[in-house]
Write the structure tokens for this entry.
Amino acid sequence: MYVSGWFLFGAQMLFFLLGALFFWRSAKRKKGGEMVSPEENERQMQRLEDMRRVHLTEPLAEQTRPASLTEIVGQEKGIEALRAALCGPNPQHILIYGPPGVGKTAAARLVLEEAKARESSPFLRTAPFVEIDATTLQFDERGIADPLLGSVHDPIYQGAGAFGQAGIPRPQPGAVCKANGGVLFLDEIGELHPIQMNRLLKVLEDRVARFQSSYYSRENKRIPPYVHEIFQKGMPADFRLIGATTRSPRELPPALRSRCTEIFFQPLGTAAVEQIAENGLKKAGLEYDSGFCGKIARYAGGGRDTVNLVQSLSARAEMEGRKYVTESDLEIVAETGRFEPRIQKKVERKSRVGVVNGLAVMGGMGGTVLTVEAVFHKDGQSGLQVTGIVEEEELKSPHGRSLRKSNARSSVENVLTVLEQFGFRRRDYTVHINFPGGMPVDGPSAGTAMFLAAYSAFTGAAVPGDVALTGELSLTGQILPVGGVSEKLAAAQEAGVSRVWIPKANWQRAYGRMELEVLCAGDVRELLEQIFAEKEAGGAVLSSGILSAEGLGQRE
Ligand SMILES: Nc1ncnc2c1ncn2[C@@H]1O[C@H](COP(=O)(O)OP(=O)(O)OP(=O)(O)O)[C@@H](O)[C@H]1O
């Protein structure tokens, strides 16, 4: 019993000494800044080296990435605006709107390179381009980790590190500081959490990112001077913001919009997609029959889709040891990649009664042609039916979900009131207005198209199929200005429209240089005079050029 007591005491002492030795050694290492043993460090360095030695070939998507602004197809006006906003002596913050995969990121990256090469630009040759995607930023109210704005690594989260043991909070710079002196490209900026957005706006204003921590004290002598400096004066964050979004302008905070130059990138038309396909096939060294790029354009909605398709085509050809690609390759690739053929809405050129092409903008996705159909029955009854509209549309945003109600129905009511100026009496007619295609219809800007369809159905005057219109209608028949005219004109051109009427107040000289004819009118009488000028419909033309129900023998 006596011997075993001594034995136990000896074992305890040995255990204690070994523990003390271990803690002494590790404390010594940490004091010298050594967090891991030299052997472990060596092992990890070797692992990194081994990983770096592995190289796959450069994906075609990288090879085909535009290397200069001239290689970006179909965005000439957007690029011109980007250059003006960023390449001068006083670069602006910028917002780029446009559908996915049409070259927004590629253009932003390249325009900084161009700015850097200019003498007058404040961007140095070393100016960084820092890219971050707002959809990957998770908002954390405690701000423990914020890759965009930066955060403070408090000692409690630093564990056994030197700063943690000394109780020193450690500022972690975010993308706003990493972009100092260059460009911060924030993709999908519309998805940013509202609190993060407000903080970002503050950084834009101050050009400094500020850090706070309850562990920070000015009196703490153990805090290194550079950390004191950061807590007291902030960290420089002097950059130009380029935000890109697929949302429409009204979905972005006005406070952000008012600080930025807004630039719109267009959806890519068939010709642009064909050009991108051709460039991609050439870079991949593939041969193809003439007309093949046009077939690719049937499946690809944008530049990224095109590059992806070309990449898959190239992979197929390579697997089979071929240097050419065929239509059957394209069909297989499109089928397996679920590339749906693009519905290329082309307008019918023939004149029809009660059928008119309107124009609309679908969020950030660009313009589209929207058909309006009207049927009037003179059956001595009064009735109005509006069909084909999406009455309610759910909008998702970082603020939550909201419902947007279509006001197409009330716009039709306005249209009928204006039509009363032309002899229409509600009590005598059952009116049916239809919007084929089930699209969310923004009533007001489709006002003139609805009016023309109703006027045509009422009078029996056929409307040429290659005409399209946009414009809001007032109760007195004035045509009021609308938004998104450029996008609408691009969509009209793509759909084969040859003449478009827009509100007088929207007229710009540049529209006069477009392939299609752009005309404008201030009120419905002017519009009707222009559309039906010298054109016989139902055998009756009024001296003013405006057709009346009386003159035409209305459809019963
Ligand atoms: N207009 C274009 N001209 C030439 N290539 C294009 C064009 N648009 C897209 N591409 C090709 O698609 C790739 C992806 O385009 P990019 O990332 O610039 O699109 P994005 O508009 O920024 O899309 P997202 O909104 O999805 O980020 C580019 O690297 C390029 O290869």
